[in-house]
Amino acid sequence: MNCGEFAVQTVMHCHVHLIPRRKGDLDEPKGGVRGVIAGKASYLSEPPTSK
């Protein structure tokens, strides 16, 4: 759930995403909600880039 200042909201409200799941919908289900969006789950494990 994303709420308030830490969710970078300009209009304060509760914000929830509901993503339906089905058995077998992912080859390797792991992690939180970002795991169901292809290419999103592993971003924290990537080393930071220097500019």
Protein traits:
51 residues, little secondary structure, two-stranded antiparallel sheet, flat
How would you characterize the overall build of this protein?
With 51 residues, the protein is mostly loops. It has one domain. 0% of the residues lie in helices and 8% in strands. It is built from no helices and two strands. It has strands at 2-3, 14-15. It has a two-stranded antiparallel ribbon. It is flat and about 35 Å long. The model has no long low-confidence stretch (mean pLDDT 69).
Largest sheet, strands/sense/barrel: 2 strands, antiparallel
Regions with little confidence, pLDDT below 50 for 5+ residues: none
- The percent of residues in helical segments reads under 10%
**Share of residues in strands:** 5-15%
Number of strands: 2
Shape descriptor reads: flat
Mean of pLDDT: 69
Strand order of the biggest β-sheet: 1-2
* Contiguous helical run count: 0
Give the terminus-to-terminus CA distance: 32 Å
Rg calculated over all Cα atoms: 15 Å
Secondary-structure element series: EE
Pfam family, one: HIT
Motif (Histidine triad motif): 13-17
Protein name: HIT domain-containing protein
Domain HIT: 1-28
